[in-house]
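Changelog-linked ticket: NAP example.
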Amino acid sequence: MGVVLVTGGSRGIGRATSLLLAQSGYKVVVNYQRNKQAADEVVNIIREAGGEVLAIKADISDELQVMAMFAEIDSAFGPVTALVNNAGILFQQSTIEELTAERINRVLATNVTGSFLCCREAVKRMALRHGGKGGAIVNVSSAAARLGAPGEYVDYAASKGAVDTLTTGLSVEVAAQGIRVNGVRPGFIYTDMHADGGEAGRVDRVKELLPMKRGGQPEEVAQAIAWLLSDKASYVTGSFLDLAGGK
Ligand code: NAP
């Protein structure tokens, strides 16, 4: 089935994606940054179900750590055939007056630079011109890229705008190399991320404002990611699936 790296695969949307892809038969690499316990839990669930899985601690904003992670995957499972660029961060809700250069740069370093670096290492291994067998990449963006997250985290929204542009540009750049690159734009999904923004109950606060009148589950996003990675989406590249309850 192939080898998939899910960045931030230990919690939230990444966790649901790792579990689903393992069920589909992928060898799964669960990347995480800090929370080993959460990563180990995902590993244990997959192993107990008979799947092949590996957890790797690496900060995706750090070039050397990204390169070391891909090298470790090469040795353990062989080169990646699929990549889910899922790891992402945001900080306390605020208006622009409160934003510092340090915060903006931290958001961009993880959400944008991290996604670029993982795409680079994946393309080196997947591209036909390098002797690879092709592959598929899904970048996890956000509805915020379209909506802008005013009064909450415009820095985060802008980082996801950059991720969408990465998806568009890279999809064309590597289309003839057997690599498909697509994006998902979730919104209002029940995960711990909203607590990082200072409002753990955010999804329940806004759900009545959504056309579907409910928040989304990580598993619903995972299904879209799995489809975009799969051969069922073999003619799909440079496309985006919005998973935001109609918003
Ligand atoms: P989450 O529950 O906060 O989980 C974040 C994951 O990313 C964790 O596994 C975390 O690992 C990992 N991570 C964070 N920084 C990292 C780094 N520098 N290097 C490697 N791993 C790192 O987040 P989520 O809500 O599932 O979000 C996943 C993706 O969906 C993000 O890109 C987010 O922007 C996007 N998204 C989410 C929503 C939503 O409503 N939840 C909406 C739109 C888009 P540790 O636990 O080890 O720190």
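Closing comment: Example verified and attached. The radius of gyration is 17 Å. The first strand starts at residue 3 and ends at 6.
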